[in-house]
Amino acid sequence: MSTNRFLRVQAVRMLLVAATFCTLLVVTGESVLAHGEDISETSPSQSSASNPSNLASPAAAGLQAACWALTVPYGAAKMAYAIGGGIVGGFAWAITGGDMEVAKSIWFPSMTGDYIVQPQHLTGEKHLYFVGVSPEGPLS
Predict the structure, then answer these.
(1) Are 120 and 37 a contacting pair, CB within 8 Å?
(2) N or C: which end of the chain has fewer CB within 10 A?
(3) How far is CA 49 from the centre of its chain?
(4) Mean model confidence pLDDT for the chain
């Protein structure tokens, strides 16, 4: 009896993991579409099967799948880098006696940049920036 119960519990766990994975796949795929710049600008009359902006084409589906698959590890690495930059920037601010310029010179590059891979990054229409730049430009 205990073996049957164990197998049922394992089956329920696997179903929950599969349902969670599918939900994340759908949610992440839609968020990548929401961040696309020129996807909504293409009218149905202008789209073709060879154009990756056509959401119904197999090329667009493959591009979205590739974006999702690349965003998972890339986003995790970017988040780790940003969190590390936030911590190091906080330490730099404290060590320099509250000098915000020193802290910002660490925070801006680590916390800005791209957090998700978009279809435009894969097609070469946009650059993918792991390290961001300061809005004021380079410090002198």
Answers:
(1) yes
(2) C
(3) 26
(4) 77
pLDDT at 69 over 60: yes
Distance between CA 9 and CA 18 in Å, rounded? Answer: 14
Residue spans of alpha helices (H) in 36-139: 58-95, 100-111, 119-123
CA 115 to chain centre: 4
The Cα diameter of the chain in Å comes to 73
Question: How far is Cα of residue 53 from the mean position of the Cα atoms in its chain?
Answer: 19
Measured in residues, the chain has a length of 140
Distance separating alpha carbons of residues 77 and 70, to the nearest angstrom: 11
Query: Please, which residues have CB within 8 angstroms of residue 101's CB and are 6 or more apart in sequence?
Result: 139
- In whole angstroms, what is the distance from residue 88 CA to residue 38 CA? 37
List the one residue out of 113, 116, 121, 123 whose CA is nearest residue 27: 116
CA angle 48, 54, 55 (to 5 degrees): 150
Tokens (6 digits) for 44 = 């149905």
